[in-house]
Write a structure and sequence with these properties.
The chain is an alpha+beta fold and about 500 residues long. It has two domains: about 290 residues, Serine Threonine Protein Phosphatase 5, Tetratricopeptide repeat (Alpha Horseshoe), CATH 1.25.40; about 160 residues, Alpha-Beta Plaits (2-Layer Sandwich), CATH 3.30.70. The chain has 20 helices and six strands. A six-stranded mixed beta sheet has the order 2-3-1-4-5-6, sandwiched between helices. The chain starts with 13 loop residues before the first helix and ends with a strand. About 45% of the residues are buried.
Amino acid sequence: MEQDKPLSAGQVPDSDIQVRRLLQAGQLAAANALFDESLAGGIPATEEEHGVRAGVLVNRAMLAWRLGRIPLSLELAAEAWTELGTGHQEGVGAAYTLGMLGYLLEGIGNRRAALETLRVSVRLARDCGNTMVLATCLQRLGGTLNFRAIEAPADEAQANFTEARSVLAEGLGLHAEPSVYRALLGAYSRSLAGLGELTAAAEAARQVLRLGTKAEDRWAIAVGEWVLAVVSRARGQLIEARTFAARAVTNADRINDTSLLLRFSLDLADICGELDDSIGESAALRRSVAAARKAADTLREGLGQAMEQRRLAAAAQRMAMAAQEVASRDPLTGLVNRLGLERSAPDVIAAAEQDGRTIWLVLVDVDWFKGVNDDAGHAAGDAALREIAQLLQAECRADDLVARWAGDEFVVLLSDLGGDAGPVVAERVRAAVAKHSWTMVLGTARPPTVSIGVAAGPGTFDDLFAAADIVLYQAKRQGRNRVAVFRQFNDLGELAND
């Protein structure tokens, strides 16, 4: 169960907020007209934080979904996901956007990704300390867990309802904005009902009904009536349950919420079946089938249109990215080149410092490389550099930044939590090159080895490179094919290293 809520004042256009209110009131024609006007107005420019533009896009994707405009919804969601993926995911905007994206993924049917995305949104919201956004993300996660519980076997259902109750109770304790509070309370009442706490569930559902009626919020009204139907059915009060379920179905239909309509119709059919009301059961089943067919048809059509639109957009984006990639990639080895390294290094170092991790710079220089070129030829020398690049990548971790600096020099930037990852990786690289079979590449020419200088942060890229360069040449002077680690200068101004 989901209740939309804009990012914050000044970040989402007022017209989008009004579209949401019209939807909740069941005024679909007016909502559609205003939504078109809002789309024509574009997205207000903002530099407040990364994720704000993505948040507006996903907010509009949700509105389009509720309005039945599936192709547009998927296009906006895809654009938002791309936008969010261009930077580090943190802050209010990222938390809110991922929460909405999780809801859309659930509706599309990508359920595993949906739940993972919703959990990440809650974690980010907790980290940024914004209680309003945290309450919204908790509501989305709790509502999704409720629906998972309803469809799960009994043992899994209890676990899901229990987790839902916990996260929703946390959200209710945050004193959220009224519409978010109504959504939290509605979802909370359903988790209570699922756990057999019927009295508390009924009391919470009636409060949701009162608040929803006062605010003209048909979404909240529908949820409150649904929970009361569930409670009445559990108590054996089937006539009352049928009345509440029928009202819930009517309100879900009026606000065009297909997922709620499908769920409520199935429950109504079950209640009518228990009452031997074959006419009511058939009508409810027809409604549920129609809702399911509508969801499938619109999604199928939307996916086709959206995929074609995204295909064309992705092709243009790939061309632009390819041009950038050529500028930052070494054509011989395929590694990041010096330009790409200098562009990326400040972000890598800043991220490590922010996470409390030690940054390491590993500077690798190929020993006797001039001799390789002289004895085996430049083509063989190029092949040797490619093999060394592959060995470097094989011995480094997936998120380490591996680059060709110049000529026969390579750089690796990596980080760890207070360990000795830099020296460990450097020694692995040295050993891998030393024991590698070079016969196929170089024939009888002298096989290369590498000398490596390692330096640890804190410091700028230039500081780390200079320190690693000092010990690299010390390793060269000491006989090559070895690793030297820069630690610090001692009190006499002499280098203290491994």
